[in-house]
Design brief:
The complex is a heterotrimer of chains A (293), B (524) and C (317).
Chain A (H helix, E strand, L loop, with lengths): L20 H13 L1 H19 L33 H36 L1 H16 L2 H12 L3 H28 L2 H8 L4 H37 L11 H10 L6 H29 L2
Helix pairs in contact in A: 1-10, 2-3, 2-10, 3-4, 3-6, 3-8, 3-9, 3-10, 4-6, 5-6, 6-8, 8-9, 8-10, 9-10
Chain B lengths: L15 H6 L4 H8 L4 H4 L14 E6 L19 H4 L4 E3 L5 E3 L2 E7 L4 E6 L13 H10 L10 H4 L2 E8 L2 E6 L6 H7 L23 E7 L3 E6 L13 E6 L3 H9 L5 E3 L3 H8 L4 E15 L9 H10 L2 H7 L6 E2 L13 H4 L6 H10 L6 E7 L2 H16 L3 E7 L1 H10 L5 E7 L5 H7 L15 H12 L5 H15 L2 E14 L2 E2 L2 E2 L5 E2 L4 E2 L1
Parallel strand pairs in B: 1-10, 1-11, 14-15, 14-16
Antiparallel strand pairs in B: 2-3, 4-5, 5-7, 6-7, 8-9, 9-10, 11-17, 12-16, 12-17, 13-17, 18-21, 19-20
Helix pairs in contact in B: 10-13, 16-17, 17-18
Chain C lengths: L1 H28 L4 H6 L5 H11 L5 H13 L13 H36 L3 H15 L3 H15 L15 H36 L1 H8 L4 H10 L3 H25 L5 H11 L2 H29 L10
Helix pairs in contact in C: 1-4, 1-13, 5-6, 5-8, 5-11, 5-13, 6-8, 7-8, 7-11, 8-10, 8-11, 9-10, 11-12, 11-13, 12-13
Classes of the chains: A mainly alpha (293), B alpha+beta (524), C mainly alpha (317).
C-alpha cells in the first residue's frame, strides 16, 4: 500500500549549490524544532528507547506461563496472551524486530535506489530501462508483489525484507535520477566539466550531495510504506513466523481473540499507529523545512 | 432467513441530510428509520417451538466441500453427506443398526453371506428409482483408494455382490465381519449412472432429503429441498447454504453474528467464547489426534532415549488447557475411549516429567542439540508447536519452528522429507486402533515419514488387524505399548471436532459418526 | 492529446507485457511441484509425469507462455489444478463480492477524501487546521487492516451496530447487504481518502495564492464563493490523479480486508491459491490486478488531459 507513491517534489532540489555541512544540519534541526517534527522525533525516540531497553525489564518474548488471557494489570498492562505471555513485552519485542527489519529494508532500498538512479542519470539507455522497471514495480499492488515474493522464498523475515526493498526502490530511484538530472546543467557542473573532471567524479563529489536531501526526506515516508507491507503480509500469514513476534503478527493473533481478550489488539495497534504517525510527522516537517526552503 | 420487519416506521423517512451525514454509520441511520439490521436478524427469537416449514439454513465450515468424499467421514463431507445421501442402515444411539434404504437383512452360511432387501419406492434426485445396481456400485466404491473411505479395509473383505432382483442384494464375504455395519454407515448410496461426474461436483445424486444444487469450489455449496423425499412432509427446510470460512475467528464470528446457523471445524479456543452465550450450543464429535512425529534416522532421534525423553518433556495438560480451551483429552494414546482396547494407564504412560526428560537427554549426550520442527499450518497445531518448543528448550534441546502450508506438509510427509521433528494433526473419526495405524500415513508399517521399519511392528499391526473380537483388547494394548516404547510418534492431545449451533436451529441431529442430519430440523 | 497517447500507451503496454511475463514465470520458480501436489501423497513417478504432460508443464517455457497468453487474451486462464474448474469461472464466481467492495470503497474514498480535503483547505483557524492535519496524517499512517480492526472493535463489539464478518450480496438483499459491506469498505477507503484529502488541501492552498484568486478576493467575493468557484475547481484535477493511482492500491488492500472480514472475494481466493500453490489462479489474479491498476491510471490521466490541457502529465507519476 503506497502511502505516497508520488515522490515529494521530485524536481525541487535545493536551490543553493553545495550548502556547507553546518547549514544542512541546521535545516534538519530546524525541521525537528517545528511542532510536527518535535512531536515526531519525540514519539520515535520513546518507541526506539522502549524497544532497545525491553530486554532489561523482561525475560524474553516467549516467557510462557499458565496465566492465560489475564486482564490488564500493573504487572501486565495489556494483559497476557493465550500462552500466558505478557502482551506488552511481546509488543515491544515485536517493535524491536520491526524496527530492525524496516530500517534495514528501507536503508538498503535507499542505497540501491540512489545507485540505480545515479547510473540512470549517467546513461540515458539504462535510465530509461530503470524507469520502466520502476513502472512495473509500481504497477503491482504492493501486497500482490509481497505474496509473489513469499511464494518464491517462503514466508518470513527474508520475504518481508525483499518485498520492502523492491517496493521502496522506485521512489528512491526516481528521486535520485530526477535530482541528478536537474543539477546537470547548472553552472558549477558545467564549470567542473570544462575543467576536465570526469563525469562520474563530478557526480559523486558535487552533484550527489546536492540531491541527497529529497532522498533523506523520502526515507521517512518509505518507512510508512514498509510498515504497511509488513502488517499486510502478516495478516495473510506470510509475515514473520512464531514464536518471534512482530507488530503485524501480534495484531493477527489479536484479531483471533477479539472477543476473548479485546485488549490484546490494543497494545500492538497503538504502537503501530504511533510508529507510523511519528514517521509521517517527521516526513511532513522535513518536507517543509528542508525541501521548501 | 427470518425477515422480521419492524412495523412502526417506513424506511423512507431517512432524510437526505441523515443519509449524507450518517454515511459512516448507516447502521445508525437504518436503526432510526426502522430498517432491518443485520445484527438483529442474527439473533432471532427463542420462543415458538412448533415445527415450521421453509427457511434457509446457513452453515460455515472451515474446509471446502469435497464431493469425492461422499463416503468418508471428513470435515469436507460431514455436513452434507447425510443430507444428499442416505445409507443402507444407520446406527441408533445404542449402536444397533436400524433400517434406512434397506428394510431388512439376514446372514447365512455362518455369517459369510448377507442378503439385503431394499426399499422399493425410493427415488434418486434424478427421478429414477434406486435399485440393487446403485447399492452394489456404492459398496464397491468404498474399496477404491480415491474414495478415501474409512470403510475401505472393511470393504476389502467383500468377495462379491449379486443382485437377486432389483431390490435384493446378496453380499458374499471372504470371512465373517462383525463390523460390516460400520461400512454401511459410511457407504452413502450413490446413483451409479452419474457417478463419473461425482468428484467434479457437477452431478452429485443420491436419495437424501436435499439435492445438490450448485457448488462453487473454495466458496460455497447450495442444497435445495428434495420434494420427492421418501418421508412425506420432510424435510422442513427449503434450502441449505454452506460457505467455506477457513479463518477460525471468522468462522466463530459468522456464528455469533448470525451469518451462519451451524459452524463446523472452529478451533476450540475460538469456540469457547460462545460457550457462555445462551444463544448457542457447542457440540463435540470425534475429532483429531494432535501429535509429534520424529525421524528415527535423524540425530538426535537415532537414540531411542531422546525419542522417549520428548514424551516426558511436554506438558500435555497445558496444551489441552491453553490450545484446546480444556476440551479433549491429554493422552499419550492416539485413539479415543471408544476403542475397546483403550487403556487408562497407557494414556498416561508419558506423564509430564521435565527432570526425567532432561536427564535422559543428557545421558544420550543430546543436550544443546538444535532441531528444526516442521509445523502444519493450522492454527491449533501452530499454538501447540509453540508450547512444544518452549518445553523442549526447557529440557535442553534447541528448537526452531518452520511452518508449512498443509499442501507442502502433506507432500513432505508422504515423501518422508520432513525435518527431524514435526507437529501435526490427523482426523481419527473414532476409528479403531488397528484401522488407524494401517491407514494413516505417519504410522504405515510399510513405510512412514519417521522412516521407522521393523518386522516386529509389521507383525504387531497384522495381529491387531486380524484379531477376533475376544483378542482385540490384548492386541490393541500390545500395539499401543510397542508404539510408545519405540516413540517415533508422540500423541499429545486428542481433541474433538467442534460443532457450533445457533439455538434458532431446532431438532438437528447427527449420525453416530457425526454426520449432520436435518430431516426434522426447522428454524425459529 | 494524440501525441500524449502515443507516448503513454506503449509504456502502459510495456508494463502489462512485463507483468504478464512476471506473472507467468514467477510462480513457476517457486519451490514445490504442482504435479506432485495434484497427484497426491501416494502417486508413483509415472503418474506424476503423466499429470505433468497433461498440464503441459513439460514443454519449453516460451511455448507455455505464448500458449498461456493467447488463451488469457481470449479470457481463458486455464484450469485450476486443485478444483479442476476453469479459472475464469472461479474468478467470476468471486468477482462479485470484490467488485461491490471496491465500488463502495472507491465511492467512500472520493467522498471522504474530498470532504476532508475541502474542510481542511477552507478552515482558516490555525488550531482547527492543525487538528485536521493531524487527523489526516494519522489516517494516512493507518493500514486498512488496522482501521478495519478499530472499526470492528467500535461498531461491531463495543456498540454492536454492524455485522463484523461475512457477506450478503447487494443483489440478494440490498438492505442487509449494505450493512455487511459498510465496515470493510470504510476500512479500505479511510487510508486512501486521507491521501486524497492531503492533495486536495495542498492544491487548494496553492490555488489560494494564485493571482486570479487574489483578484477575486480583492473584488470582494465571499469566502464561500471564492472557495467553491475558484479554489476548489482548480484543485479537483489533482484529486482525480490521486484517485487513479489509489485505485490500484485499493485493490491490493482488498486482499487483507477480505481476510479480516471473512469475505469470499478475489483477495481470499488469492491467499488460498498462494497457500495451495494453485498458480493458474494466482497468475490470473496478479495479471488482473495489475491490468486494472494500469488501465485505471491511464484512463484517469487521459481524462485529465482531455479536461485540462495545461496539466503536465509527465509529473503525474
Amino acid at each position: 500500500m503506497t502511502v505516497d507513491s508520488q515522490a515529494p517534489a521530485a524536481t525541487a532540489g535545493p536551490t543553493t549549490p553545495r550548502p556547507t555541512r553546518h547549514r544542512t544540519l541546521r535545516r534538519y534541526l530546524g525541521a525537528l524544532r517545528r511542532p510536527r517534527g518535535a512531536v515526531g522525533i519525540t514519539l520515535l525516540g520513546v518507541l526506539v528507547a522502549a524497544a532497545v531497553l525491553v530486554p532489561l525489564f523482561s525475560s524474553g518474548y516467549d516467557a510462557q506461563s499458565m496465566n492465560t488471557f489475564a486482564g490488564p494489570s500493573w504487572a501486565h498492562p495489556f494483559g497476557t496472551d493465550e500462552l500466558g505471555r505478557d502482551i506488552a513485552v511481546r509488543t515491544l519485542y515485536g517493535l524491536r524486530i520491526d524496527l530492525v527489519l524496516l530500517s534495514a529494508g528501507v536503508l538498503t532500498a535507499m542505497v540501491l535506489g540512489t545507485v540505480l538512479g545515479a547510473i540512470g542519470a549517467l546513461s540515458r539507455a539504462l535510465g530509461l530501462f530503470f524507469q520502466r522497471v520502476f513502472d512495473i514495480i509500481q504497477g503491482f499492488p504492493s501486497l500482490i508483489l509481497g505474496m509473489v515474493v513469499a511464494l518464491l522464498v517462503g514466508p518470513g523475515m527474508l520475504a518481508l525484507s525483499i518485498s520492502i526493498v523492491i517496493f521502496a526502490l522506485p521512489g528512491f530511484g526516481r528521486l535520485a535520477r530526477a535530482g541528478l538530472l536537474s543539477q546537470e546543467r547548472r553552472e558549477y557542473v558545467l564549470a567542473a566539466q570544462t575543467m576536465g573532471i570526469p563525469r562520474w567524479r563530478v557526480l559523486v563529489r558535487h552533484i550527489l550531495p546536492n540531491t541527497i536531501d529529497p532522498i533523506i526526506v523520502h526515507t521517512a515516508i518509505a518507512m510508512v510504506i514498509a510498515i504497511f507491507l509488513e502488517t499486510g503480509l502478516s495478516v495473510v500469514g506470510l509475515g514473520i513466523q512464531p514464536p518471534e513476534p512482530s507488530l503485524g503478527s501480534l495484531l493477527n493473533s489479536g484479531v483471533r481473540f477479539l472477543s476473548l481478550a479485546p485488549v490484546y489488539v490494543l497494545g500492538p495497534a497503538i504502537v503501530l499507529i504511533l510508529l507510523a504517525l511519528s514517521f509521517s510527522l517527521l516526513s511532513d516537517a522535513l518536507n517543509e523545512e528542508v525541501l521548501r526552503k | 432467513m427470518d425477515q422480521r420487519r419492524s412495523p412502526h416506521r417506513a424506511p423512507s423517512t431517512i432524510s437526505r441530510r441523515t443519509a449524507l451525514l450518517g454515511l459512516t454509520s448507516v447502521g445508525c441511520g437504518a436503526a432510526l428509520s426502522g430498517c432491518r439490521l443485520a445484527v438483529d436478524e442474527a439473533r432471532g427469537e427463542s420462543h415458538g417451538t412448533a415445527p415450521r416449514a421453509g427457511g434457509t439454513l446457513t452453515m460455515a465450515v472451515n474446509i471446502d466441500a469435497d464431493p469425492a468424499a461422499a463416503q468418508s467421514q471428513l470435515t469436507s463431507s460431514i455436513t452434507w453427506r447425510r443430507l444428499v445421501f442416505e445409507t443402507l442402515t444407520a446406527y441408533d444411539e445404542n449402536g444397533i443398526p436400524q433400517p434406512q434404504l434397506a428394510t431388512g437383512w439376514e446372514f447365512s452360511e455362518g455369517g459369510r453371506v448377507l442378503t439385503l432387501r431394499l426399499r422399493p419406492d425410493v427415488l434418486l434426485h434424478s427421478g429414477r428409482a434406486v435399485d440393487a445396481r446403485d447399492v452394489i456400485y456404492s459398496l464397491g466404491r468404498t474399496a477404491d483408494p480415491d474414495a478415501r473411505s474409512q470403510g475401505r479395509s472393511i470393504a476389502s473383505v467383500i468377495a462379491d455382490m449379486t443382485a437377486d432382483d432389483p431390490h435384493t442384494v446378496r453380499i458374499r464375504l471372504q470371512r465373517p465381519a462383525s463390523n460390516l455395519f460400520d461400512l454401511f454407515e459410511l457407504a452413502s448410496v450413490i446413483d451409479h449412472e452419474s457417478a463419473n461426474d461425482l468428484a467434479r461436483g457437477t452431478s452429485v445424486i443420491g436419495t437424501g432429503p436435499f439435492t445438490w444444487e450448485s457448488w462453487t469450489p473454495g466458496d460455497s455449496l447450495h442444497l435445495t429441498r428434495n420434494p420427492h423425499y421418501r418421508v412425506p412432509g420432510r424435510p422442513y427446510l427449503d434450502r441449505i447454504e454452506q460457505s467455506t470460512i477457513i479463518d477460525p475467528t471468522a468462522l466463530v464470528t459468522a456464528i455469533r453474528g448470525g451469518r451462519a446457523h451451524v459452524g463446523y471445524g472452529s478451533a476450540p479456543l475460538d469456540a469457547k467464547g460462545l460457550s457462555a452465550d445462551g444463544r448457542f450450543e457447542i457440540g463435540l464429535s470425534a475429532g483429531a489426534a494432535y501429535s509429534l512425529g520424529l525421524d528415527v534416522l535423524a540425530p538426535p532421534f537415532t537414540d531411542i532415549r531422546v525419542r522417549q525423553a520428548i514424551g516426558y518433556a511436554i506438558d500435555r495438560e497445558r496444551i489441552r488447557t491453553q490450545v484446546f480451551a480444556g476440551y479433549g483429552e491429554a493422552s499419550s494414546l492416539w485413539w479415543t475411549r471408544n476403542e475397546p482396547g483403550w487403556d487408562e494407564t497407557q494414556s498416561t504412560t508419558y506423564r509430564y516429567d521435565p527432570e526425567l526428560a532432561r536427564s535422559m537427554i543428557a545421558a544420550a549426550g543430546a543436550t544443546g542439540k538444535r532441531i528444526v520442527m516442521d509445523v502444519r499450518g493450522l492454527v491449533s497445531v501452530r499454538s501447540m508447536a509453540e508450547i512444544v518448543r518452549y518445553d523442549l528448550e526447557a529440557v535442553g534441546l534447541g528448537v526452531q519452528i518452520q511452518i508449512l502450508d498443509s499442501a507442502t506438509f502433506d507432500q513432505r510427509l508422504a515423501t518422508g522429507k520432513l525435518n527431524p521433528l514435526w507437529a501435526t494433526a490427523f482426523g481419527i473419526a473414532d476409528l479403531g486402533a488397528a484401522t488407524l495405524v494401517s491407514s494413516i500415513p505417519p504410522f504405515l508399517p510399510s513405510g512412514n515419514a519417521s522412516h521407522f521399519r521393523a518386522d516386529a511392528y509389521q507383525a504387531i499391526v497384522h495381529t491387531a488387524l486380524t484379531a477376533p473380537p475376544d483378542k482385540r483388547k490384548a492386541s490393541v494394548h500390545a500395539l499401543g505399548a510397542y508404539l510408545q516404547e519405540q516413540a517415533f510418534d508422540h500423541s499429545l492431545v486428542v481433541a474433538p471436532l467442534m460443532t457450533l449451533r445457533s439455538r434458532r436451529v431446532r431438532d438437528a441431529a447427527q449420525t453416530r459418526l457425526g454426520a449432520l442430519v436435518l430431516d426434522n430440523a426447522y428454524l425459529v | 492529446m494524440a501525441r500524449y497517447l502515443l507516448r503513454r500507451v506503449p509504456s502502459a503496454l510495456l508494463v502489462l507485457f512485463a507483468t504478464s511475463v512476471l506473472a507467468f514465470v514467477l510462480p513457476r520458480l517457486a519451490p514445490g511441484d504442482p504435479a506432485v501436489t495434484i497427484a497426491g501423497p501416494d502417486a508413483t513417478a509415472a503418474e506424476v509425469a503423466a499429470i505433468r504432460a497433461d498440464l503441459g508443464l513439460d514443454r519449453p517455457m516460451v511455448t507455455q507462455y505464448l500458449h498461456w497468453l493467447g488463451d488469457a487474451l481470449h479470457g481463458n486462464f486455464g484450469t485450476s489444478y486443485l478444483t479442476d474448474r476453469p479459472v475464469t469461472q472461479l474468478l467470476l464466481d468471486r468477482a462479485g463480492s470484490t467488485v461491490q467492495l471496491a465500488i463502495l470503497a472507491a465511492l467512500l474514498m472520493v467522498v471522504l477524501g474530498l470532504g476532508l480535503g475541502i474542510i481542511a483547505g477552507s478552515v482558516r483557524r490555525r488550531s482547527a487546521r492543525s487538528a485536521l492535519d493531524l487527523f489526516s496524517t494519522t489516517l494516512l499512517g493507518t493500514p486498512p487492516f488496522l482501521s478495519g480492526l478499530l472499526l470492528v472493535l467500535l461498531l461491531g463489539i463495543a456498540v454492536p451496530l454492524l455485522p463484523v464478518s461475512g457477506e450478503v450480496s447487494l443483489f440478494a438483499d440490498p438492505v442487509i447487504g449494505i450493512q455487511y459491506l459498510l465496515l470493510p469498505a470504510l476500512a479500505l477507503a479511510l487510508t486512501q481518502s486521507a491521501a486524497i484529502a492531503r492533495l486536495v488541501r495542498s492544491a487548494m492552498d496553492q490555488a489560494r495564492g494564485e493571482d486570479y484568486v487574489q483578484t477575486a478576493i480583492a473584488k470582494g467575493a465571499s469566502d464561500t464563493r471564492v472557495t467553491l468557484r475558484h479554489v476548489l475547481r482548480n484543485s479537483l484535477s489533482s484529486a482525480l490523479v490521486t484517485f487513479g493511482i489509489r485505485f490500484g492500491e485499493l485493490l491490493g488492500g482488498a486482499i487483507v480486508v477480505e481476510a479480516i472480514f471473512a469475505r469470499n472475494g478475489l483477495g481470499t481466493l488469492a491467499v488460498t491459491s498462494v497457500n495451495q500453490r494453485d498458480y493458474a489462479v494466482l497468475q490470473a489474479i496478479t495479471l488482473l490486478a495489475v491490468a486494472i491498476a494500469v488501465i485505471t491510471q491511464l484512463l484517469t490521466e487521459i481524462g485529465l488531459a482531455a479536461l485540462d490541457p495545461r496539466i503536465k502529465l509527465e509529473s503525474a507519476r
